[in-house]
Amino acid sequence: MEPLTLLQFTRPDPGRTETLVSQIYADLRTGMTSGAIPVGTRLPSSRRAAAILGVSRNTVNTAYDLLRAEGLVEIALQRRPVVTGGSAMPVVDMRAAPLAPTPPRVASNWTCDHREPCFIDRNGAMAPGRPDPALFPHEAWARTLRRASRHRLAAGDFAPPSSPPSPSLPALREELARGLARDRGMTVDPSQIIITGGTQASLALVALVLARPGDRVLMEDPGYMGARAAMLGAGLVPEPMPLDEEGARVPPAGDRARLVYLTPSNQYPLGHRLSLARRLAFIDHARRTGAIILEDDYDSEFHWRGREIAAMHALGSGREVIYLGTTSKALAPTLHLAWMVVPTELVKPFTQAQRNLGMMANLQIQAAYGDWLASGEYRAHLRRISRCYARRGAMLAERLREAFGKRVSLHGPDGGLQLALVFRAGQDEDAALQALHAAGFSPSRLSALCLQAGMTGLVIGFADATEQKITRFCDTLAASFAGAETP
Length: 487
Hints:
The chain is an alpha/beta fold. It has helices at residues 3-9, 20-33, 46-53, 57-69, 138-149, 170-184, 199-210, 225-233, 276-289, 312-315, 347-357, 363-375, 377-404, 429-438, 467-485; strands at residues 73-74, 82-83, 193-196, 216-221, 237-244, 247-248, 259-262, 292-296, 321-326, 338-341, 408-410, 418-423, 444-445, 457-461. It has 15 helices and 14 strands.
């Protein structure tokens, strides 16, 4: 695509309400889905596109990564992105609907097109957020699954004949409610828990049920790209919330965003914990403005330093916060099992929407996980892997500080399965990623998780990090730094 052609499709304007990333992403997506940008077209490199459009390279990289998440472009190292699809995908103009002056309706009978979740295949070592498959309790889980398979799992077994089949298993809801009270300080009725096929499904349901296309959603910057993709997929407009040592900053009093997405226990990817003062301030903001907080508690099981604060949901009235949990970090992402805690009055519309969209979790997996929680085997497994992950995270952080000193900065890790290594000036993110991928590692690009933060660096997983892997990782990264600094 020549420079003049690129400007025909997108002219990002800092004066508009949408972020530059959202403008570039939406404009190029419209061109691809309408066929105006044909399949096979090669887009300019991120460096060239940034120069043409007058924006930062991080802004272009993030827009390109969002297009890749939807399967619209293919991106390979040292090659210009190529358009791979889009003509069959419906166009969603995120700027078409202004913010509604009254709270949006709760939709439970819409139809929705499918959009790819924002996951990137990472087969290498030390990928962020991925548990060590070697620590998965295969034998114990197999026994539990066999027990569950002996039960009759027809949908009618879980609801009276006159009621629609329940997408969520009551026994699992009860176990989860007990666990949330014990571990997260939450008092919820089991009926408030909606079981889904993953956090991505939970986020998509929230966006589609509680908001309209064009509504604004505030998101941590940098932040979880999968959440951003779910919101964009529902036609919402993500806007950045900057971070500091206390976590995300509370929006101004007059802000009227519909949703506020937070990872308060272990901010993804920087690892800051949202302070208690900030948590209370966010809840107060939600009460005054009618916003709904999405509390993604994706890895609160892994907490390495300091005293954990209760879940945000436990600090409010139960109406300001929707709580999101998952098994993907403590067990495996491939189980596709997650849950939401929603206000009582929203249980019916969420359940109806879940049925309409077919976004239910496998009942046999639900039964097995509920049995495992009840037996105590899950908590024993969690204690074992927590000790292991804590050692590996501390070892990785120590080696990175020893090897790179003031050339980088990193926080923690205080918990979770990954840490963010932020580059100082002069460190080349592209060169580091290329070298590490060639050596068999799969860290994430920090700049791709930014809306406006402008950070570069790596998000590094340590769940599968051994001493040998860490040594090889540091040596490879040091060599890439040395190569980038050579005149």
